[in-house]
Amino acid sequence: MLDVRRLRLLRDLAHLGTISAVAEAHTYTASAVSQQLAALQREAGVPLLERFGRRVRLTAAGVALVEHTEVLLGALEAADATLAAARGGLTGPLRIGAFPSAVRTLLPAALAALGRDHPHLDLHVSELDPVDVPAALRKRRLDVALVHDYDLVPADPDPTAESLRLLDEPVFLAVADEHPGTLADAADSHWIVGSPGTLCHTLALRLCHDAGFSPRVRHHADDFTAVLALVAAGQGVAVVPQLGVEHLPAPVRLRTLPIRRRTSIAFRRGSGSHPAVAACVTALSSAASGSGLRPD
């Protein structure tokens, strides 16, 4: 019988790419991870890893085993959800992650509802970019997360997670006066974009590239309130979704762009029926309904 803990290490190697990264994620030594993977390979009876330069990579059998592991781990999550429902009552920690504009706009109402309806849940919130959510769910640092992508920059499917579409919202070009009037007019403007590596940074570069120019980036900022303040100060133009526009500074004008931002609720595969996760989904859905935005 294959050891589930070792299978999890192999799965994480497939996602993280190096044994040292797996070791760091599990607070093991690299030597300990290598020994566990070697033991798994002996159990399997076929090579699961092969040398690739100074690194290792999965063989075809290793890739196939990871696919089965995802199914197995999802089934274990579902089993845990069934036991939690049988125990009755919602208690214990619930770790929720969200991107900054959702923390300000959607999460407060959802947290208030969860606290009122399930007072024995111990709620923990972490603010993080959607690109960091899959790893946080796999490492069990989060149980539920709000994530987003754009129709222009869709997210890659994550086999370790499930998601439910929550809402769609328009996206704007924020300018400080009547000019620029269109995205093409902003080719000569300075730009305010998200930090490199964030989804918002990727979107801004892709949007400009598709319009035929590279943005002249002057500032990097991830909080949309700060972004709009910089636009109001004449520091450049920026791309801002509707949830990021809580208070529009007087000099700022919004130009609607032909793209949408899509927000979803993500959780580990198989955990959707866990009572705490289900309660969080209900609370977040109610908060989204109050925003007036709906999925397309």
UniProtKB/TrEMBL annotation:
Classification via Gene3D superfamilies: Periplasmic binding protein-like II, Winged helix-like DNA-binding domain superfamily/Winged helix DNA-binding domain
UniProt keyword DNA-binding present: yes
Transmembrane residue ranges: none
Residue intervals of the HTH lysR-type domain: 2-59
Pfam families (alphabetical): HTH_1, LysR_substrate
InterPro entries: LysR_HTH_N, LysR_subst-bd, WH-like_DNA-bd_sf, WH_DNA-bd_sf
Tagged with keyword Kinase: no
Keyword vocabulary terms for this entry: DNA-binding, Transcription, Transcription regulation
Protein name: LysR family transcriptional regulator
Origin superkingdom: Bacteria
Coiled-coil ranges (or none): none
Similarity annotation: Belongs to the LysR transcriptional regulatory family.
